[in-house]
Design a protein that fits this description.
It contains 14 helices and ten strands. By secondary structure, it is of the alpha/beta class.
Length: about 375
């Protein structure tokens, strides 16, 4: 196994050793005291999967429907900002993985590679993630740019009216655009392997903000977004519209009635509100509220194939993986990413077999 990666925990352990403290804590950190992340993990751990025996599970498939296509595996790649901090070219590694596996690559508004080369490298398997910012003028410019680049799905992230306070990254003086001061210089000096490879490629930038008259400020308020904002986006966007960051069943019902194509249950990787309910628990509540026909996606806290199966058992139609993929890249580059992806596929397939199923599409009650 590449670089000793037998699980996502292995990838995280190696990444923690190799990345500067500032970069690791930016990727790994959560809001507040990080109690929310711990509660979500505990909620996952409390969920049980019941083994079933003497069923022919020799012919298994991980494929699941995703809108009008079929994904080869039941998980895609969450939109993540500044991925190239984990290693030079990380964004493109993820794009090539999406192309190979026929799964969506979430391209963040604050990606460190521009949206156009990413959808090209992903061979069309890319969705653009959108933040509403300020008065929305620049936001809708990005929508038009995504349309021109060939994107057919937009993910509107709605759980960041203000950027959550993440003490671990704040202690290191982490900012975007990326700034290097005395503290960061010392940090990098203590991690020469990363420094020599990453900084030699130049300071990472937020690559989607080269438009005239539009500069992105990560800390700028996004609090003006409301239901009229969603309606405006729905009217101007002809493709699929996913709303990400939903934890309340009533909000989910309103989104369904507003005509969105899918709802993504998420707490932003526990990076926004420390006191938010565990997303994996909210997923079951939202599925019960919206019924069986509304596509529900899930992210936050997925660490294994068993976690993916648990999310489907709670009502998800598809899942998205985040920081563990960056850890794999930090640990061993593109080979590390491929190794962890294979681990996750194997874990998912074995889990399906253990519970007596041949597919995640099987009736969860049987």
């Amino acid at each position: 196994m590449v670089a000793g990666i037998h699980s996502s925990a292995d990838a995280r352990r190696i990444a923690r050793r190799r990345l500067p403290w500032m970069v690791f804590d930016y990727i790994d950190g959560a809001a507040g005291r990080e109690i929310g992340a711990a509660r979500n993990r505990a909620a996952f751990d409390d969920l049980e999967l019941r083994p079933r025996i003497l069923r022919d599970v020799s012919d298994r498939s991980l494929a699941v429907p995703l809108f009008d296509q079929t994904a080869k595996v039941p998980f895609g790649i969450s939109p993540m900002g500044m991925c190239n901090l984990s290693a030079p070219g990380a964004d493109m590694m993820l794009a090539r993985l999406a192309a190979r596996e026929h799964v969506p690559l979430g391209v963040s508004t604050v990606a460190s590679t521009a949206m156009e080369p990413l959808i090209e490298a992903a061979e069309g398997h890319a969705w653009f993630q959108l933040y509403f910012t300020g008065d929305g003028d620049g936001t809708f410019k990005l929508v038009e740019r995504a349309k021109a680049a060939g994107y057919e799905t937009i993910i509107l992230t709605v759980d960041v009216p203000e950027v959550g306070r993440r003490p671990r990254e704040l202690r290191h003086g982490f900012t975007m655009p990326f700034k290097i001061g005395p503290r960061q210089f010392l940090d990098f000096a203590c991690h020469p392997r990363w420094s020599l490879t990453a900084l030699a490629k130049g300071k990472p930038q937020m690559a989607n903000f080269d438009m005239d008259g539009y500069e992105f400020d990560r800390t700028e308020s996004r609090a003006k977004a409301n239901w009229n904002t969603l309606a405006q986006l729905r009217d101007m966007w002809p493709g699929k519209l996913v709303v990400k960051g939903v934890l309340d069943a009533q909000d989910a019902l309103m989104l369904r009635d507003a005509g969105v194509d899918a709802i993504q249950v998420s707490s932003h990787g526990s990076r926004q509100l420390d006191s938010a309910p565990p997303p994996i628990t909210a997923l079951a509540d939202i599925r019960q509220a919206v019924g069986p026909d509304v596509p529900l996606f899930y992210d936050t806290g997925l660490r294994s194939g068993e976690d993916v199966v648990k999310a489907f058992q709670q009502g998800a139609n598809f899942t998205f993986l985040g920081r563990i993929l960056q850890f794999a890249i930090a640990a061993a580059g593109e080979e590390g990413l491929a190794a962890l992806w294979d681990v996750l596929k194997t874990e998912t397939s074995i889990t399906i077999a253990q519970i007596g199923k041949t597919s995640l599409l099987d009736d969860p009650e049987n």
